[in-house]
Amino acid sequence: MNEKPLEGVRVLDITRIIYGPWAATLLAQLGAEVIHVEMPGSGDTLIRLVSPGGVFPRNLSPGMMCCNANKYFVAIDMRKEEGRELIRELASKCDVLMENFKPGTFDRWGIGYRQLSEINPGLIYVSMQGFGNWGELWERPSYDAYAQGITGLAEITGFEEAMPVKSQAWIGDFLSGTIAAFTTLVALFWRNRSGKGQFIDMSQAEVLIRAMDWTWLYMAIKNQNRKRYGNRDPAVVPSCLVKCEDGYAAVAAFRKDEFEGLCRAMDRNDLLEFLDYDARMKNAEKIYKAIEEWASKRKVDEVVRAGYTYGFAVAELMNSAKLHASKHFNERGAVWKYYDPLYEELCYPFALHLGKTPGSIRWSMRPVGFDNEHVFRRILGISEDELEELYRKGVVGKWDASVPTTAPPEGKEGRVIY
Question: What is the value of pTM for the model shown?
């Protein structure tokens, strides 16, 4: 079996919705032991009840499954002092704590960075907020659509004559979660050198602002807002999406040899006078119209074959069904098909291909409190009687059988999978 690069790293994941759970999942896929904390009964109601069309096959929540994997799920009522004491005990034995509650909440509960760093000076505490832990906007909540709106990302997306467009993918959550995982790894690296933990102040809005390529430099130099350009790239000409007779294709020809190949494929040698980049920028409208007219009279396969023949970049616009069946992505494990011990056959996108220490997906989300016994007894040494008393007091708990997405699939309630 391959060694896992983060084996031996323990993470206490007290996050909700997408942004935080995704950051912890990336670490779990690389071998970290991640303990995911929810409330007893309902769990993370903001994401366990999320599904397109309200369909929850096998008690799975698509919203939760897409950002949780390889974690141990426990349920602790942190509103109770005994619940907060369990958090302190777990934090004392963890390398990383991640949370995305409203700034100041954990400090008031006595489990913020200042308190926990006294118990565990090496703790890396990652606070994932919409706008950080200080500043004029620190109290505002943030969801993906909100983040796309307030950062200006939606304002530059879409067509100039239409209203701005929100990305249908939760890009604000997944990109920000990825950066949170990256900064956590940096802090772990620095701790290995210094022996010290630290507080990481994550802002979802700042991550999205930074992702907007040349937008801010353009504003600083030209004092102009970036416009919406639809399916055309105004800085890399040509790079666009086009409509064909039977579908859509993506076309790009930035290098001179690629642009020359595209012109010859379209039988438009007159456009070769725009071979130089500056000339293409000045004549972008003419070039894009030529490409769109050419593609509109051809089938997608014909456009794709022309790209291979003449040496420019072109691809069919894929949908999830085609990607799921793609030979390339299946062979590479980018479409990760696996058997989950509770939910059986599942599929998950994957991109962590390290040569000597590859990541992996071993299981998906789990029911609320499913791993209580495994975690509390193994890590904290709590006896069976002590754990039973915590259940009796409501300090810890399990799923609510009346809410299917919090519970195991039927017939698997008592399944032992360790």
Answer: 0.94
pLDDT in tens, 5-43: 999 999 999 999 999 999 999 999 999 999 999 999 999
Q: What is the 3-state secondary structure (H, E, C) of the chain?
A: CCCCCCCCCEEEEECCCCHHHHHHHHHHHCCCEEEEEECCECCCHHHHCCCHHHCCHHHCCHHHHCCCCCEEEEEECCCCHHHHHHHHHHHHCCCEEEECCCCCHHHHCCCCHHHHHHHCCCCEEEEEECCCCCCCCCCCCCCHHHHHHHCCCHHHCCCCCCCCCCCCCCHHHHHHHHHHHHHHHHHHHHHHHHCCCEEEEEEHHHHHHHCCCCHHHHHHHHCCCCCCCCCECCCCCCEEEEECCCCEEEEECCCHHHHHHHHHHCCCHHHHHHCCHHHHHHCHHHHHHHHHHHHHCCCHHHHHHHHHHHCCEEEECCCHHHHHHCHHHHHCCCEEEEEECCCEEEEEECCCCCCCCCCCCCCCCCCCCCCHHHHHHHHCCCCHHHHHHHHHHCCECCECCCCHHHCCCCCCCCCCCC
Tokens representing 315 are 């691809």
User: What one-character-per-residue DSSP string does 373-416 give?
Assistant: HHHHHHHS---HHHHHHHHHHTSB--B-TTSGGGSPPTT-TT--
As a whole number, mean pLDDT of residues 407-415 equals 84
- Residue recorded with tokens 């309902």: 42
- Could you read off the pLDDT of 147-157 as tens digits, one per residue? 999 999 999 99
Q: Name the 3-class secondary structure at 354.
A: coil
pLDDT for the residue 1: 58
Q: Which two tokens stand for residue 237?
A: 């000409």
Q: What is the pLDDT of residue 286?
A: 98
